[in-house]
Amino acid sequence: MIREIVQLGDKVLRETCAPVEKFDEELASLLDDMKETLKKAQGAGLAAPQVGVPVRAVVVDVEEGFFEFVNPVFVWQKGEQTGPEGCLSVRGKEGVVTRPSKVKIVYKDRNGNRCSLVAHDFFARAVCHELDHLDGIIYIDKAARVYDEED
């Protein structure tokens, strides 16, 4: 089911999200809905609070593939990259943000299995952007500059 993407100003976007405790059908349904919502919106990532659910779950769809991260945590971050970002919850704006160029995270999959992943370049940027959402941080908080998409 495609869910509504909440917009800047909704308090759920500023919450620190709770860890996922149950790896059940409700979580699977949320992740399925997030994937469908992300595909329709043609974005690179979506965090659960962006669909109004304050739990630590994100989906990322990049060149490397489609990924689901539940209760993700950074192990390390290396390097630096600066580039443009947008957000499905901040319509009509883009910003210039500096992020790590390489990250390693540990997370659980939808079944509760512990996994790890190293992401580089744009994939690392997308992971960092989505994990920020889980702590109530939006890219505009870190942007050196924010501008209208048309500019």
Automatic annotation (TrEMBL):
Pfam name, any one: Pep_deformylase
Catalysed reaction equations from the record: N-terminal N-formyl-L-methionyl-[peptide] + H2O = N-terminal L-methionyl-[peptide] + formate
Residue positions binding Fe cation: 87, 129, 133
Record flagged with keyword Protein biosynthesis: yes
Names of required cofactors: Fe(2+)
Keywords: Hydrolase, Iron, Metal-binding, Protein biosynthesis
Keyword NAD set for record: no
Alphabetical GO biological process terms: translation
EC number: 3.5.1.88
Molecular function via GO: metal ion binding; peptide deformylase activity
Top enzyme class: hydrolase
Binding note for cofactor: Binds 1 Fe(2+) ion.
Active site: 130
Family statement drawn from the similarity comment of this UniProt entry: Belongs to the polypeptide deformylase family.
Role noted for this protein: Removes the formyl group from the N-terminal Met of newly synthesized proteins. Requires at least a dipeptide for an efficient rate of reaction. N-terminal L-methionine is a prerequisite for activity but the enzyme has broad specificity at other positions.
Protein's name according to its UniProt entry: Peptide deformylase
Organism: Candidatus Gallimonas gallistercoris
Name of the encoding gene: def
